[in-house]
Write a structure and sequence with these properties.
The chain is of the alpha/beta class. Helix content is 47%, strand content 11%. Strands 1, 2, 5, 6, 7, 8, 9, 12, 13 and 14 form a ten-stranded mixed beta sheet that branches. A hairpin with a 6-residue loop joins β3 and β4.
């Protein structure tokens, strides 16, 4: 442990590289510019929901919201009298300042959200209520209990606070140059700017005072200034939105840029107070949509303003042991505490969901691991609150009012019981969002079904339920829930058609999916999510020109959309343009480095382009990120054998592949009406165990179900009957021995016409062009899957044009 190291951590809520880079190019953030090429920078992936108190607690603890316990914005008052903002006493785990206290390191924490009441840590804590105004008269503004630890420090720093009434018009004019011309009805905007300036100035004054008058090893300072000013005025920023009146644009278009410049001025002062041995980290929990990506409508509901957030915040780190002028990829809000701990030589817990960002350091030291910080003991106190702490919340009202003004929570109305019940449902909703983000869909469904029954008219609860039902392939239940949302409003109808499209796409019913997504697109032509789904569906249907059209619109609207670039890469790869595909896959990886599928497809494009050494590296990178991606390992084996002529490496990868593919199944598959069902019945009559996964011949819309994990291969031969769509969903850890029904086209088409009740077309010898096209699409998709599938042995048999008895012994011999 290097106790001489110091680290200044600055939290700039909602700061976004898009705006920062624009201002840097104009020379309007000189403090940041002078350090930016002396460290590492990158995007910082957020989590869902992008709610600041949840995210900043994940940043400070390294664990997910369902574990740390900070959910939403507000909580019931312990006295049962209504709501209050979240208190630090609701956090269930240690934050990095508690971990530092256990190792005798001093922490100064200012304004972290949520940190009230201040914890008794080794150092100083000034809570996020310190700057909240509790009296209109600055002279009567007292230090609220619990806002400062140690208590005696409160009197020393009380005068550092800035009251909104002390923000003069001259201080407002850099943000609103035509201050004296604004209409009277917009005074609330001016007041909001004054209040946010006062809060930011207070946090800055306290922080710089502590930097000069106290000892510290780590200092964490949180500013909500950029976030609040962006919610207030990003809609007025250039380029002008068509929905914004000229007068509003003229008056308020400078507010957001002014906030970034003011934040940079504060940074400049902090930089003057640290030396070269002090590292500095600047980060944000999420970004903020700007330019054409700004939402035209923000829902009037709790957490509605989070629709303005973008999925990537900022990450910057400079100091001793940090590379210079480098980019870092794949960083997440979950990685910050592990990175901080590792920088100081402290242990990282295995139950943290993040990882140290080792690319941030020039010295690659071994990570020290412990199971969990919650049971990790040292001889020093972590500085946690006693479990039975209750705090007088008289000073929470200003914080609650601010959350209401920003739109993060609704003003409580109704009986106390109703207010608390709604608040609890909101917390459960945020928990379900977090669980869904972590792919824990069944747990999310259980929560959402309960709150949907409790509050059936809160439609966002139901839309999230539908999403999770689709994830778990409960399509019929999802459709039943969607019926409850139809016809309520245009915005809900858009979601209904969008979700119906996702259901059809999951069922491999591409044309119906496309029609559904297009109906949603007609009502919301600029929705990036819908454009992506239209691109995905066109790709599945092998309509590459259409797919390119939709994906290009995504990339044009948002050049940083990782899935737009990935989709464009897939279109170009399938169209045979490997060079352009490589460019798009590289763009996707630059935006989001932890994207194993993009690394794999990059390898495919490089291999087709003849760049076999680079293809090898791409496959290896995909496997580093996802060791279970067996198709990447299979392609790597083929590359070593056929192009690189390295049998030793091929055998090494083959051994790993065989270790992963630990089960083997027998499958009969083929196109619809190609004789699969009939041969299955014949096998059954001969005593062979057959597991039929085929859809019902009566209900062709039946949900496809796989029960592979419940089967028990071994002993007698066991054969699975599957559609080709089902076959392509078999997990990669299964080796497959496949008997593929592959009849002549005319025989297949005639059988399909008869099966579909259209014998008259077959008898008239009318060629069914549409049916032939669908067969070709399915066959091409199968061939693409087959080319990448490892552990696959195939025998092609014409089940339609041969007598069953003739091939039965051949089938049994193949499967034995």
């Amino acid at each position: 442990m290097n106790s001489k190291r110091k680290l200044l951590v600055l939290g700039w809520d909602a700061a976004d590289w898009e705006v920062i880079d624009d201002l840097l190019a104009k020379g309007e953030m000189p403090a940041l510019k002078r350090i930016l090429d002396k460290g590492v920078r990158g995007n910082l992936a957020t989590m869902d929901p992008p709610i600041s108190p949840m995210l900043w607690t994940t940043i400070a603890t390294g664990v997910e919201p369902e574990k740390h316990g900070i959910l939403g914005f507000a909580e019931p008052d312990p006295e049962g009298k209504g709501l209050r903002p979240l208190f630090s006493t609701s956090r269930k785990v240690k934050a990095f300042w508690n971990m530092f206290s256990q190792y005798g390191l001093k922490s100064n924490i200012v304004g972290w959200w949520p940190s009230h009441p201040a914890e008794p840590i080794n150092g100083v804590m000034v809570s996020n209520f310190f700057q909240m105004v509790t009296h209109h008269d600055p002279s009567q503004w007292k230090i609220a209990p619990g806002t400062v630890f140690p208590d005696h420090l409160g009197d020393k720093i009380a005068d550092l606070r800035v009251h909104p009434d002390e923000i003069t018009p001259e201080l407002v004019m850099p943000f609103i140059p035509e201050l004296y011309q604004i209409p009277h009805e917009d005074e609330k905007i001016v007041w909001a700017v004054r209040k946010e300036l006062a809060h930011a100035a207070t946090i800055q004054a306290v922080s710089t005072w502590l930097m000069q008058h106290s000892e510290w090893d780590i200092m964490g300072v949180y500013f909500d200034f950029i976030d609040h000013m962006s919610h207030l005025a990003m809609k007025f920023r250039a380029p002008k939105l068509s929905s914004v009146p000229e007068e509003k644009f003229r008056f308020y278009s400078k507010i957001v840029d002014g906030a970034y410049r003011f934040q940079d001025m504060m940074l400049g002062r902090m930089l003057d107070l640290i030396d070269e041995q002090t590292a500095i980290m600047i980060l944000s929990d999420h970004g903020f949509e700007s330019g054409d990506l700004r939402p035209r409508y923000v829902p009037k509901e709790p957490s509605g303003p989070t629709k303005e957030h973008s999925p990537f915040g900022i990450y910057f780190l400079k100091g001793p042991g940090i590379p210079t002028n480098e980019k870092i990829y794949g960083a997440s809000v979950t990685d910050i505490t592990p990175t901080i701990l590792h920088y100081f030589g402290l242990p990282v817990a295995k139950d943290m969901i993040g990882k140290p960002l080792l690319a941030s350091f020039t010295e690659q030291r071994e990570i020290k691991w412990i199971d969990s910080w919650e049971n990790h003991q040292t001889n020093l106190d972590p500085g946690l609150h006693p479990g039975d702490l209750r705090v007088n919340a008289w000073n929470a009202q200003e914080a609650l009012e601010q959350l209401i003004e920003l739109g993060y929570i609704e003003r409580p109305e109704g009986t106390t019981e109703h207010i608390i019940a709604v608040s609890k449902a909101e917390v459960d909703y945020y928990l379900a969002q977090s669980l869904s983000f972590r792919h824990r869909y069944e747990e999310a469904i259980s929560i959402l079904e309960k709150i949907c029954n409790q509050f059936p008219d809160i439609h966002r609860f139901r839309t999230l339920l539908v999403q999770n039902l689709i994830h778990t392939r409960q399509w019929n239940n999802a459709l039943l829930e969607l019926e409850k949302l139809k016809g309520i409003s245009d915005s809900l109808d858009i979601q209904v058609w969008y979700f119906i499209g996702k259901i059809y796409l999951s069922q491999h019913r591409g044309k119906l999916a496309y029609k559904s997504f297009y109906r949603a697109h007609e009502k919301a032509p600029k929705s990036i999510d819908i454009l992506l789904r239209l691109g995905d569906t066109s790709l599945v249907l092998q309509e590459y020109k259409d797919a390119e059209k939709w994906y290009s619109q995504v990339v044009e609207r948002n050049p940083k959309n990782v899935f737009g670039h990935f989709g464009m890469g897939m279109v170009m790869l399938r169209s045979g343009d490997a060079d352009t595909a490589i460019d798009h896959f590289l763009d996707a990886i630059e935006i989001r480095n932890f994207f194993p599928q993009a690394h794999f497809q990059l390898g495919e494009a490089l291999r087709l382009n003849g760049d076999v050494e680079d293809a090898e590296n791409a496959y290896l990178f995909a496997l580093k990120q996802n060791p279970e991606m067996l198709k990447a390992r299979n392609q790597l084996i083929q590359l070593y054998r056929n192009q690189l002529k390295n049998e030793e490496k091929a055998n090494e990868q083959l051994a790993i592949l065989n270790a992963h593919q630990n089960r083997e199944i027998n499958v009969i598959s083929g196109p619809p009406a190609s004789g699969i069902g009939e041969i299955g019945e014949k096998l059954l009559s001969n005593g062979v165990k057959v597991l039929n996964h085929l859809p019902s011949q009566v209900d062709q819309k039946a949900e496809l179900q796989l029960s592979l994990l419940n089967s028990s291969p071994g002993g007698d031969t066991e054969i699975h009957l599957m559609t080709m769509a089902q076959l392509m969903r078999v997990p990669e850890n299964f080796k497959i021995r496949l008997l593929l029904s592959d009849p002549e086209e005319i025989s297949l088409l005639n059988a399909q016409l008869v099966f579909g009740g259209k014998e008259h077309l077959a008898s008239k010898k009318i060629f069914p062009a549409n049916l032939s096209h669908l067969n070709r699409i399915e066959k091409d998709a199968f061939l693409q899957w087959q080319s990448q599938r490892s552990g696959l042995e195939v025998l092609k048999v014409n089940l339609l044009d041969q007598e069953n008895d003739e091939i039965l012994s051949q089938i049994l011999s193949f499967f034995h």
